[in-house]
């Protein structure tokens, strides 16, 4: 397992990839920070509908609020990336070629997932740090107090935001991996993933509120947001774990039983 | 090292109602360069995939390097393979791809420069894989197969898609992989390609073995006739007459005479023909056994439907 993780880190640890990932994290931090802080309302309560308030930004978690709020998009982005990377492993034949070096199929797919998640963890951490720094720079212009950000409470809120965002990312990554394994074709898997997590879940949920509590994508969205009005954090974590376990079991079963012919 | 590199019995693979490999029995001694020959769709790739644990057999059993094919992890670390087409990460260089595969396989990356040199990619190792020609991709695939200095190499149509120069280079490369007790199983549907480098042949048709054994056994005694050409063309009629008088069946064919061997030893018949011509004062410019080609032998075996 360690060797497979190491190989994935080598694959994505090249200078160009690191630079691109860093630029992506910076772009995300810039977009999220300026959008959230500039769009913060003077009053109101936080929810999926009402968004961030200036009071929230002055609290312990204000420094990483922009990072956390914008992370909903990151989850879907991670979903797409994992679908593409995993499906291409099969359609491109590299999974077959790697199996000739390490024939333990489940170990190979889990190792790849872990390696990619480590890369994602580093990129997300970078994005959070950058977003925090940018928030510190922008806050004075909006008269947002930042003293609470630098306290132990601020550190705890930052770690909590990181944990919830990364937890959601792990879920999206497992779903993406599962779709890649099922379809073994990036265009087909991406098409299905887009259609389900994009239009289907959102359209149905708008007319059927229960969808926010049961659809996998909506559950992960709630998890990344640290819980929503529709689905509390504890319930989101529990439901997401069940979905992730089922998706992981499907992926591992298919990987271990199917012939590798591509 | 075992004396038998691999041995399978009744190996079968069915996809739905279609049988791709049909009760294949196959034994390969250690240290041979074995050609795995059959037309497209004969079951070569599927057989190799089953030996490598990529495809699960529907029936049958066997061992590879002493390990059961039901547990390929037991022997795959000692097997190098290139199955179907080479598959690498396009954005990585050839050397980085080998490094990645070495990490996954637990092999020493220090051997990579030597492997690149061996397959003729020493100067292109740092170029991205996506920039490689088909021949270079195939050669990188062989370099990857050689990671860890495997006891058994399984190469699936390594010359597939290459131009004539590439085919020749690949043939030389495959021939050079033999030795040091290493066993090589290389498949192709191009019989002439393998005839020149293999000392063992496995011929299959529709998923069944039609021949397996030493190349020389398959081709020995297959010289069905001799081509005889006199130095002076005006002697051709006299030579035909002389040879007929000595009991040979002779047919003129273009600018030469073709003497039927009729199952006899080609060398002794050639000596008798040469002696008869010499005694008649005729100098021979050519006296050549006309061998039946591997292709002819293959087609004959397929038509016989035999499984030797």
- Overall structural class of chain A, as computed from helix and strand content, comes to mainly alpha
Oligomer: heterodimer
Number of helices of chain A: 11
Estimated structural class of chain B: alpha/beta
Please give the number of β-strands of chain B: 14
Query: How much helix is in the residues of chain B?
Result: 25-40%
Largest interface: A-B, 23 and 30 residues
Low-confidence stretches of chain A: none
Number of strands of chain A: 0
The strands making up the biggest β-sheet of chain B line up spatially as 6-7-8-3-9-10
In the residues of chain A, how many domains can be counted?
1
**Averaging pLDDT over every residue of chain A, what do you get?**
85
Helix content range of the residues of chain A, please?
Answer: over 70%
Low-confidence region ranges of chain B: none
| Element-level helix/strand string of chain A | HHHHHHHHHHH
- Count of DSSP helices of chain B? 10
Main pleated sheet of chain B: 6 strands, mixed
Radius of gyration of chain B: 24 Å
Brief description of this entry?
Chain A has 262 residues and is mainly α. Chain A has helices at residues 2-12, 15-39, 54-58, 65-91, 94-99, 105-138, 152-183, 186-207, 211-214, 216-224, 233-257. Chain B has a six-stranded mixed sheet with strand order 6-7-8-3-9-10, sandwiched between helices. In chain B, strands 2-1-4-5 form a four-stranded antiparallel sheet, with helices on one face.
3D structure, described in words:
The complex is a heterodimer of chains A (262) and B (308). With 262 residues, chain A is an all-alpha fold. Chain A is 76% helix and 0% strand. Chain A is built from eleven helices and no strands. Chain A has helices at residues 2-12, 15-39, 54-58, 65-91, 94-99, 105-138, 152-183, 186-207, 211-214, 216-224, 233-257. In chain A, helix 4 (65-91) packs parallel to helix 7, helix 6 (105-138) packs antiparallel against helix 7 (152-183) and helix 7 packs across helix 8. The two termini of chain A are 23 Å apart. The mean pLDDT of chain A is 85. Chain B has helices spanning 44-51, 94-105, 112-118, 134-145, 164-176, 191-195, 215-219, 236-245, 266-279, 294-304; strands at residues 4-15, 18-29, 33-37, 59-64, 67-68, 79-82, 152-156, 183-188, 200-205, 208-214, 223-230, 250-253, 256-260, 284-291. The two termini of chain B are 26 Å apart. Chain B has 308 residues and is of the alpha/beta class. In chain B, the strands form three sheets. Chain B has a six-stranded mixed beta sheet, with helices on both faces. Chain B has a four-stranded antiparallel beta sheet with strand order 2-1-4-5, covered by helices on one side. Chains A and B meet through helix 1 and helix 5 of A and strand 6 and helix 2 of B.
């Amino acid at each position: 397992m360690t060797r497979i993780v190491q190989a994935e880190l080598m694959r994505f640890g090249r200078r160009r990839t690191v630079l691109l990932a860093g630029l992506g994290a910076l772009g995300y931090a810039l977009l999220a920070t300026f959008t959230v802080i500039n769009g913060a309302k003077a009053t109101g309560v936080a929810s999926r509908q009402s968004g961030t308030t200036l009071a929230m930004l002055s609290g312990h978690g204000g420094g990483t609020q922009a990072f956390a709020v914008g992370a909903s998009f990151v989850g879907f982005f991670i979903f797409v990336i994992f679908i593409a990377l995993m499906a291409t492993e099969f359609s491109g034949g590299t999974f077959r070629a790697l199996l000739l070096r390490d024939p333990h199929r489940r170990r190979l797919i889990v190792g790849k997932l872990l390696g990619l998640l480590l890369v994602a963890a580093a990129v997300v951490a970078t994005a959070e740090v950058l977003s925090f720094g940018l928030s510190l720079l922008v806050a004075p212009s909006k008269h947002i107090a930042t003293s609470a950000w630098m306290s132990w409470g601020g550190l705890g809120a930052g770690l909590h935001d990181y944990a919830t965002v990364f937890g959601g990312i792990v879920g999206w990554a497992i779903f993406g991996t599962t779709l890649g394994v099922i379809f073994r074709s990036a265009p087909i898997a991406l098409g299905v993933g887009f259609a389900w997590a994009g239009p289907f879940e959102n359209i149905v949920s708008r007319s059927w509120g229960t969808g926010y509590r049961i659809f996998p994508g909506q559950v992960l969205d709630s998890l990344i947001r640290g819980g929503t009005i529709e689905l509390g954090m504890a319930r989101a974590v529990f439901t997401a774990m069940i979905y992730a376990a089922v998706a992981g079991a499907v992926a591992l079963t298919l990987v271990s039983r199917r012939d590798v012919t591509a | 090292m075992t004396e038998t590199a691999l041995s399978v019995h009744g190996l079968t693979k069915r996809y739905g109602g279609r049988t791709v490999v049909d009760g294949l029995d196959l034994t390969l001694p250690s240290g041979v360069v074995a050609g795995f020959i059959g037309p497209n769709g004969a079951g070569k790739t599927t057989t190799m995939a089953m030996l490598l644990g990529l495809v699960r057999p529907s029936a049958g059993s066997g061992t590879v390097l002493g390990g059961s094919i039901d547990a390929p992890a037991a022997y795959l670390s000692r097997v190098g393979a290139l199955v179907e087409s080479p598959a690498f990460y396009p954005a990585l260089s050839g050397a980085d791809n080998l490094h990645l595969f070495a990490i996954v396989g637990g092999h020493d990356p220090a051997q990579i420069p030597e492997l690149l040199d061996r397959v003729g990619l020493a100067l292109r190792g740092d170029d991205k894989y996506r920039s490689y020609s088909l021949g270079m991709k195939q050669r990188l695939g062989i370099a990857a197969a050689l990671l860890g200095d495997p006891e058994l190499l399984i190469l699936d149509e390594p010359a597939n898609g290459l131009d004539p120069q590439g085919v020749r280079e690949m043939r030389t490369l495959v021939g050079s992989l033999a030795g040091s007790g290493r066993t090589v199983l290389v498949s192709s549907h191009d019989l002439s390609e393998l005839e020149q480098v293999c000392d063992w042949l496995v011929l299959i048709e529709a998923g069944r073995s039609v021949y397996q054994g030493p190349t020389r056994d398959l081709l020995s005694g297959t010289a069905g006739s001799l081509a005889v050409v006199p130095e002076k063309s005006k002697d051709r009629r006299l030579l035909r007459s002389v040879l007929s008088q000595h009991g040979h069946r002779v047919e003129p064919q273009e600018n030469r005479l073709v003497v039927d061997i009729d199952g006899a030893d080609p060398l002794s018949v050639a000596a008798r023909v040469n002696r008869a011509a010499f005694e008649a004062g005729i100098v021979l410019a050519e006296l050549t056994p006309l061998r039946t080609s591997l292709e002819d032998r293959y087609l004959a075996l397929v038509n016989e439907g035999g499984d030797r």
